[in-house]
Design brief:
268 residues, alpha/beta, Rossmann fold, four-stranded antiparallel sheet, 9 helices, binds adenosine-5'-triphosphate, ATP-binding, nucleotide-binding, ABC_transporter-like_CS, AAA+_ATPase
């Protein structure tokens, strides 16, 4: 990282009374929650409950209509986009690469927040991008066209781009959705080993249980509860939020393990 770059290191994100309405549908309802921003936080909840909408407010794709979001004590609107781009890495659900860049070029895009107009790429930029591609297992495909890659390979390259950015906080929207189980574990282990703050929308409750320090549960545009996986991921909560019966046991390492039961569809 360049010596002159002062990195914002977050401790908490405080969301105070956030509401969001589009096309007469209210998607977030007066949502208030304080998220630790120095730990791995999982955001879970059923399809359509508002996870992506909440994350898009954090990475500023959606404007705050009502309420305030504070990064530590600073309202999000007071943080410049340039400062945010050097500190906050984002992996959204859809990959914003429409043109036919190579894998290497996509990885190098992570260095953009550090450049002024006409700045040349440096040896340090190359070293960081190569290291990121190696970490996600895509170095051998550096010269390949990004658009020719499989969904999972694209996802790993997008992670490399985020790593190249050297963020101090990561926002991940369903980061594992195209990945086979090997790469789901690799991606989440790699992110966990970065030892930076993370918020990740996750559908797989067992992965959330294994990797997250805290889990935030959303339902219908509201946060219903949050806490460590052992306290939150209970049979009652899973039944109430997802309508699926389960048996929750404890792994020898301490995290909860969820085994689902087939819901009965007999007469009520
Ligand atoms: N631009 C929009 N216009 C209308 N409705 C929208 C718009 N954007 C989001 N929604 C609706 O808001 C709700 C929340 O969407 P969001 O993508 O935040 O949910 P999610 O929890 O991330 O879902 P999933 O788990 O399926 O990815 C959904 O019902 C969605 O259809």
């Amino acid at each position: 990282m360049a010596d002159n770059v002062k990195k914002l290191r977050l401790h908490e994100i405080r969301i105070d009374g956030l509401s969001y309405t589009v096309d007469n549908a209210t998607i977030l309802h007066d949502l208030s929650v304080t998220l630790p921003a120095d730990r791995f936080v999982g955001l879970i909840g059923p399809n359509g409950c508002g996870k992506s909408t909440l994350l898009k407010h954090l990475y500023r794709v959606l404007p705050v209509q009502q309420g305030v979001i504070y990064f530590d004590d600073v309202p999000i609107s007071a943080i410049s986009l340039g400062e945010a781009a050097q500190c906050i890495g984002v992996m959204g659900q859809f990959h914003a690469v429409q043109f036919d860049f190579t894998v290497w070029q996509v990885a190098m895009m992570g260095r953009t927040p550090y450049k002024k107009h006409f700045d040349e790429d440096t040896e340090e930029d190359y070293r960081i991008a190569a290291e990121a591609l190696r970490r996600v297992g895509m170095w051998e495909k550096a010269e390949r066209s990004f658009l020719s890659l499989s969904g999972g390979e694209q996802q790993r390259v997008m992670l490399a781009r985020v790593l190249t950015q050297e963020p101090t906080y990561l926002i991940l929207d369903e980061p594992t959705n195209h990945l086979d189980i090997t790469y789901q574990f690799e991606l989440l282990s790699l992110v966990k080993d970065l030892d930076i703050g993370v918020i990740a929308a996750l559908h797989d409750l067992n992965l959330a249980a294994m990797f997250c320090d805290e889990v935030v549960v959303m339902e219908k545009g509201r946060v219903v509860t949050m806490g460590p996986p052992n306290a939150v991921l209970t049979e009652n909560l899973i039944q109430r939020i997802y309508g699926v019966p389960s048996v929750v046991s404890r792994h020898s390492e301490g995290y909860p393990m969820i085994r689902y039961e087939r819901p009965s569809h007999g007469p009520a």
